[in-house]
Amino acid sequence: MIKPPLEALLERVSNKYALVIVAAKRARQIKEGALSVVDLDTRNPVTAALEEIAAGKIRYEMPKLGVK
Questions:
Q1: Is the pTM of this model over 0.85?
Q2: Pairwise CA distance, residues 7 & 27, whole Å
Q3: Which of 3, 15, 27, 33 has its Cβ near the most Cβ atoms within 10 Å?
Q4: Would you list the domain boundaries of the chain?
């Protein structure tokens, strides 16, 4: 079973493709030394990023005119 559930994650992010990008970028930040904004028992940066997204602690902005 995936935790947090995909449904909970998609309530916070507009679509599954954006979810992948947001989670990957946040996981990379955590791996490079950024502190996690939620208390977790995991060392896995992807899990930490997904938990932060599900908790509503991560904000993101979609580009208005596509890829730059």
A1: no
A2: 20
A3: 27
A4: 6-54
